[in-house]
Amino acid sequence: MAWNAHKGRRGRIAIVGGHEGMAGAVILATRAALAAGAGLAHAIVDGPSVMAVQLTVPQALAERWPKPEAQSTEPGTEQDTDLATLDRCDAVAIGPGLGRGARSSQLLERLMNEQGDRPLVLDADALWLVAAAADALGADAAGLMRHWTRHSRAVVCTPHEGEFARLRGAAVPTPWDARVDALRQFAVRGGVTMLLKGTPTLIATPDDGPITVVPHGTPLLATGGSGDMLSGLIVALLGQGLAPREAAVCAATVHGRAAELATARLGGIRGGTLEAVFESLPAAWRLLEHPGSFPSGVLAELPSPA
């Protein structure tokens, strides 16, 4: 990063989610985005979640969800311009703690219609809502994804196995080759980069290129909020200009390496939380910037099972 960089040049990002009672998801994602170097972070959350964001992440700019369009009667009113913030953002993540009700669904559709031309991360409840909308239309989720994101060439979806099964409408195959094929096919049909969280993490691109495998991580990441943290890392990197595949691979690697460092420092998994992973992020970034040297043909050394 340039020595004379300022916040306006380090990427302005937004994270949309945080339904009442689920502010924590946006808080974790926002903290991760800032830890990845984002210069400005906006948290667009349900009204009752604004205070939690402001108290927990004072660096973030917290704003309320807009009211449903049916309640917006006068053009130019504040409720009609709430999403104008996103016009100034370099990348947007949608889904952490978004919820699955009617308001959440309406907000997602409005975002996709109005903001679908910018780099996007779709995670968690956003993916569930895409699948639900496809079911309601009798459509294929990948096809609907392609339609909604057709104006953007930088979209990263980050499902875990259950969310990917919901998108596919079928269980995720267990055999390795079949799992890889299913992920690749969805990425191509949906026109998006797909990051399937797990052990290992798999990343497929819409150009039908080779699958990327990220082998890093420990069971310390097998906890609620871990995926929100990953989404924050990815959206920050997209906002700083990385291509979707590079942003996904870099974020998943740093996320996993931070978990490995935290687990080693703790001497195991029990007693550790995501706070330990956050504390290890600076060291994980240094490892990425200054990778160790390995014998020819070896890409990484994995930790021994605990």
Description:
By secondary structure, the protein is of the alpha/beta class. The protein has one domain (10-67, 84-288): UDP-N-acetylmuramoyl-L-alanine:D-glutamate ligase. Helix content is 44%, strand content 12%. It contains 11 helices and 9 strands. It has helices at 23-35, 50-56, 78-81, 102-115, 125-137, 141-148, 161-168, 176-190, 226-239, 244-266, 274-289, and strands at residues 12-17, 40-45, 61-64, 91-94, 120-122, 155-157, 193-196, 201-204, 212-214. Residues 75-81 have low confidence and may be disordered.
Summarize the entry for a quick read.
This protein has 306 residues and is an alpha/beta fold. It has helices at residues 23-35, 50-56, 78-81, 102-115, 125-137, 141-148, 161-168, 176-190, 226-239, 244-266, 274-289, and strands at 12-17, 40-45, 61-64, 91-94, 120-122, 155-157, 193-196, 201-204, 212-214. Residues 75-81 have low confidence and may be disordered.
CATH class: Alpha Beta
CATH topology: UDP-N-acetylmuramoyl-L-alanine:D-glutamate ligase
| Structural class by SSE content | alpha/beta
Separation of the first and last Cα atoms? 36 Å
Label the overall shape: globular
Largest sheet: 9 strands, mixed
Strand arrangement, largest sheet?
3-2-1-4-5-6-7-8-9
Radius of gyration: 19 Å
Strand residues, percent? 5-15%
Report the average pLDDT across residues: 91
- The number of helices is 11
The helix-strand sequence is EHEHEHEHEHHEHHEEEHHH
Q: How many strands in all?
A: 9
* Stretches with pLDDT under 50, minimum 5 residues: 75-81
Question: Percentage of helical residues?
Answer: 40-55%
CATH homologous superfamily title: Ribokinase
Query: What is the total domain count?
Result: 1
State the CATH architecture: 3-Layer(aba) Sandwich
